[in-house]
Write the structure tokens for this entry.
Amino acid sequence: MENIKAFAKLYGFVRWFHPSDEAQQIDWERFACYGVKTVENAPNSDALKDSLLKLYLPIAPSLEIYGGSEKHDFDISKITPPDTTEFKPVYWQHSGVKLNHTPANLFNSIRVNKLNKSKYKNCPINQYYFDASIYKGEKLVLTLKIKNQHRNYCEIFFDVLNRYEAKKIEKAIKPLKIENEDWVDIKITQKVEEGDVAFFFGLAGLNFLVDDIKISLKRQNQTDSVIFKTDFNRPGSSTSDLKFNNLLPFKIEKVVKDTQNDSCLSVKFDNTFTLFSTKPVFGEIIKEPIHPELKINLPLVLMMVNDSTFPESDTLILNDLTSNLNLVISTVYEKWGGLIIVWNIIQHFFPYFAEIDVDWDNELETSIREILNEEDFQKTLKKLTAKLNDGHLGVSSPEYNPQFYLPISWEWIEGKLVIIGVYNETSEVQPGNIVLEINHRNPKKYFRELERYVSASTKGFLNVISQRETLKGPPNEYAELKIKNNFGKIQFVKLQYSFSDSEFNWKTENQENYKRIDNNFFYLNLDKISMTEIYSLMPELVSCNGIICDLRGYPNRNNEFLLHLMNQELNCGTSVMLPQTIYPNQKKITYGYSNNDEYAKPREPFINCPVVFITDSRAISMAESALLIVKHFDLGIIIGQPTAGTNGMVNYCFLPDGTVFRFTGAKVIAFDGSQHFGVGVLPDVYVEKTIKGVRKGRDEILDEAIRILKINK
């Protein structure tokens, strides 16, 4: 136990905070597995120390491990080269953290002064997503002038994406490579087909000039219109016209491109780039206990000599280590390796660590013990991470294990588990029936067992997840329910796990995009309706008496609708805070705002009628961003239940056994600076479902929205 914990703690310090060149040559996923195997049987602290040094000295030659009772000061001369006249410090900066599956351009981790050029040459350094659904059947045309410089080819990305491709954009987009070193005129045409939801424009390269960027819409039988245009000769124009990603190491500036003072944009790779201003000082040491009898000294900053960090390790020993990592590792060590990686990611980079109450050291020990006892790895990891209360968090098994659903849905209403939907015409149950037992077990105990493995920020979202997960079971098997029907009679029924995931989603989701209600009110299902449909309805929306926006889920890329509820420009940056980390264990973290100055301009026509937003705990992430804007700028009345309380960009990584681990990598706060995590967007009017309402087939939140509109019209 103590051996594995010591290796785990040292792993995080060296991988993410020690900037040696040697540490960049290691497959850290395999090293996590190999390291556990190496240290697990050390019989005492002296043997453990020897095993750890054998593992880590080839990749961290200045590491010191010493007895916990010793007073051991680090000798800085060990990391000071003879000649420091060309001294350049090398140290880690993390904006969020870059992992092996982190989505492009969301988070980054760099060694300052030791940037890897090749890592960035194909990376889009500006990204534009436009709603393509409103241009169905039309052609989009990109024109620009570009000049590749110094034989570094550059790339242009311009693609139309369907819903699936938009989620897998790194694989979907296909670049046009520019190798010519003279100015080149580019024209790319893309047609928007049925099902396309977005089009993407980006540029990549290490050194190039670009000018006269224009994206036009080539309409059928109509005049072409311009969607996006840059003109760097325009007074007041700036590099910000293109919104380059400030997490990437490029210097962006306007330059004069010819003798006639014609301006263009210059993009150059920047070797001096830093993610933020704070930095450690040469001589700062990680001085931490890793074991009851062992402590470490590990430098945070190294000097660079002849383009290499100092001191250097023995190349032969490093090669032996990297060779050993290629040996076959048994499954149990892959599990331990995965656990160590996840524990360290949370320990050092989880942005809501201060908002949760958890003894994370103790949780590591508990999880190691469970793996030692050969408990299910997926369950161990889920149980560990459930303590984080992160609604984005997920642990996805690499093995396909199909689960099907019962042909019903249920919810906790008035303290009872109530069937709210029945999707099999021959079923013996009805909406409003109360479930008394599930497979001969009390429903509360049945749910409680599953909820140990569910990470959720609020009780409401925990119910949303558990109410769905408890309906799952092996395909074609049966669940036995004891129910009280709507007449008070006790019944025993057997239901089959018969619906696939897609079938269950179709049955349970509201498929109605919009409808007109009495009194000239409109209902818009923002979970389904596209902006194309909203624009087709706009003449009726601007003249109606009131609008109900249903956001009890996730918006269908239609947040643009909010612009039509604004009558002035508003700062709608959603306070997404990227953790800026240079020290381990969440010490001295600062935050950078990714879009804190994002102004939203009103869109014509202005909708000047009462608007009600209905929501509940199913509204998460992007839905909450929209409702934070509605709430803060008073764009409508919010009724229903608090949202999920989970927002911020999601980060991913693959673990050694193929498991995918995801978590929230950035923090979101409300516009007034108050906590959003675990709180959510609170409604202006609370509405509770009732068993009576379910039995009558009423949507009580919608009923209350209509009542409020009648009062306010």
Summary: The CA atoms of residues 348 and 585 lie 5 Å apart. The longest strand covers residues 207-218.
